[in-house]
Amino acid sequence: MASHSDTLVVFFGATAGANGGKLGSDEREIILLVWQIVDLHEKKVGKLQRRLVKPDSLELTDQSKEETGLSVEELYKAEPLDKVLQQFQQSVSAELKALGRSSYTLCVDGPLIIRQALHPEASKKNLVLPECFYSFVDVRKEFHKCCPNAGQVQDLTLHSMLEYVCIPELPLSEQVMGLKEVRCMVQLSLHILAEPYSNIEFSVSKTEPVDSETVIRARGLPWQSSDQDISRFFKGLNIAKGGVALCLNAQGRRNGEALVRFINQEHRDLALERHKHHMGSRYIEVSIRITQQPLRTSNEVAQFLSKENQVIIRMRGLPFTASPQDVLTFLGADSPVTDASDGLLFVKYPDGRPTGDAFVLFSCEEYALNALKKHKQILGKRYIELFRSTAAEVQQVLNRYMSTPLISTLPSTSMVPMPVLATPPYLATGSTRDCVRLRGLPYTAAIEDILEFMGEHTIDIKPHGVHMVLNQQGRPSGDAFIQMRSADRAFMVAQKCHKKMMKDRYVEVFQCSTEEMSFVLMGGTLNRSGLSPPPCKLPCLAPPAYAAFPSPAMLSEAALYQPPLLATPRTPQPPHSPHPTPTLAYYPPQHHPAQLYMNMNMNYTAYYPSPPVSPSTMSYFASPPGSVALAAQQPHPQGHVASPMMPQHGALVRMQGLPYNAGVKDILSFFQGYQLQPDAVLLLYNFSGQRSGEALITFPSEESARRAVAERANHPLSGLPVRLLVCCD
């Protein structure tokens, strides 16, 4: 029989933790090595060698103690790994010399002892392994060549292989861990060498072609880690040439993630077993990188939501490896899903990684209730949470995890007012105040609790008109929106249910518009100071010249009671209006697409663009509710209510470096002698609803504005020097 070497060294090892199929998965150290030489030409075996290894941490799991029969006292007297490896080399070299052989190859029962235990531990302890540990033959693969009908390689065990070729098992007196496994491998090796398998060749595995399903993602890497550090982390596994790619963030810096390609799926699967192994003091998350997952489109979501009269259930906490069939099996025959797997919608990150959330459609209430009974039952190793859901929640959750919105937010008209942003594709929008906002809900409140809270007004709710608002973690935020059949009904609910108790909390109820509700459900942040838009919808505008157009209509009395969440322009007043209002600045049509666009790739963090000096690009939001009401109550020279959105006619001066507690009175005192009115001061707020340290001041003329800048620039306000800029340059 031909062979690549003269001798086999049958090799076995055990660790202080998991052994068998999970060997090396828990990073425990090697505590036992056993080997025996097999002469391939003479078909003879050498002396059986068994060595205990002293680990750095003298701790054994109960399972390891039971399987190996070793105690801490025995290991304490043993030699460390480097010494035992030296003994291995010396012993094998001496026997080879006595046999007159020149080379040998390791033979193991599966690759785990070499790839998952020995190489990683040697790397951590800075040990240089002998050359023989870089190539080996797997007795399972060799047996599969001889007996392909015995089963798949991954399903073979020493017991099943011996049974298949009718070799009797060792007597109980010889079934000591390590000795038993090595003797079984020796018997199988000699059987393979015998007829009728003499034409079978023991061969060392060569490099296999790289396929497209061998990429994993490593997360949580130290910022300073290099591709060499990653290769060292996966020591013992074959990474494809150039197969380590360090990921960068938007600023071009390493973000603690890397993509690693292995030579085949076997090595990728072994790499996945190193999930939460440590690199230094940090554990590294290892997961499958899905490379061929198509990006979710609005058509896919629309198709899911287009099925009529369906009950939607949200599943949370799914294993990342869960398949549609796993979910269908979990739900069972008593809660069949509409259209089987087509009635499932898995929520995924932009790169295709699962989030653990999914939405499920049921054709009737009975099936949905059966599914809800499985709340907190186990799927895999995780308990699954199930909740009632709505179409709006589906869109809200998907928008949170997607890098781009479900539909394009590019304006279709030639002129778009600054604050107007796109709304969800499946919610009708408008300025009619036919919705109510509930604030202060108990975090455990469900839709049923809200319906009970509404009482007799429940009959006035539109179908599927209850929408829960979730926070960034997908948990209830304490807010909800309800669509009513008319603005009058919404007003009645707000009057009768305001500060009514739900469980142990009182709930505030305000009337609002569908427009404002839709904006929040797209991912905007709701707080007491107003509304911050979803980051993927923030307008990023170039600084062209601007022109003046009529302002939004005056705020109604109802709006003053509950200021709009977003100051959205309404239909402009006709020129002959008896109450001329001050103007707002808008951008005129642009002929170059680069001058007006929506940023589609922003991450979900507060972002405040640095605006040009044009006042039309500052303060996308109205001031907080208190200041809106205050400004609305100020008398205007012409006798009508002043708009709180932007300053009045005249030259604008921008103030920078204001103390964050500076108010309108402080600014008027700063410009004492310039005859300014309170409505000439506009404090600017950032996207978090907090003061930005800037303000816009309207002066009667450009001359007075320039004089104020010349005289007051860099003068202190509450101890801080204030910078002044004329915005009409």
Brief sketch in words of this structure:
With 729 residues, the chain is α+β, with helices and mostly antiparallel strands. The chain starts with 6 loop residues before the first strand and ends with a strand.
What is the number of E strands? 33
Helix content: 25-40%
So what's the overall shape? elongated
Mean pLDDT: 74
Strand content: 15-25%
Q: How many angstroms separate the termini?
A: 92 Å
Largest sheet composition: 6 strands, mixed
Which regions have little confidence, pLDDT < 50, spanning 5+ residues?
198-210, 291-295, 404-427, 535-648
- Radius of gyration equals 36 Å
Total helices: the number is 20
Provide the structure class: alpha+beta
Subcellular location: Nucleus
Family: Belongs to the ESRP family.
Protein name: Epithelial splicing regulatory protein 2
Domain RRM: 215-287, 312-387, 435-510, 652-725
Question: How does this structure look, described?
Answer:
By secondary structure, this protein is of the alpha+beta class. Helices cover 25% and strands 24% of the residues. The protein has 20 helices and 33 strands. The strands form nine sheets. Strands 1, 2, 3, 4, 5 and 6 form a six-stranded mixed sheet that branches. Strands 8-9-7-11-10 form a five-stranded antiparallel sheet. It has a five-stranded antiparallel sheet with strand order 13-14-12-16-15, with helices on both faces. Strand 2 (30-39) and strand 3 (44-45) form a beta hairpin. The longest helix has 19 residues, at 81-99. It is elongated. The chain starts with 6 loop residues before the first strand and ends with a strand. Residues 198-210, 291-295, 404-427 and 535-648 have low confidence and may be disordered. Belongs to the ESRP family. It is found in: Nucleus. Residues 215-287, 312-387, 435-510, 652-725 form the RRM domain. Keywords: mRNA processing, mRNA splicing, Nucleus, Repeat, RNA-binding. InterPro entries: ESRP (IPR050666), Nucleotide-bd_a/b_plait_sf (IPR012677), RBD_domain_sf (IPR035979), RNaseH-like_sf (IPR012337), RNaseH_sf (IPR036397), RRM_dom (IPR000504).
